[in-house]
Amino acid sequence: AQSQREKKQKTEERERMNMTKMERNIEKREEDTREQELKKKRERERQND
């Protein structure tokens, strides 16, 4: 019975790890998108001068 519980715990930990990894990836992608937009904005401002 205990090994069953341990397996379940390990699986839940792994799933939690995967979730945080996915969330970090999403956050990083959003940051990259924001940076790209900032760069484009700066480029346009430079061209307007």
TrEMBL record:
Q: What is this protein called?
A: Uncharacterized protein
Which residues lie within the region annotated Disordered?
Answer: 1-49
Organism classification: Eukaryota, Viridiplantae, Streptophyta, Embryophyta, Tracheophyta
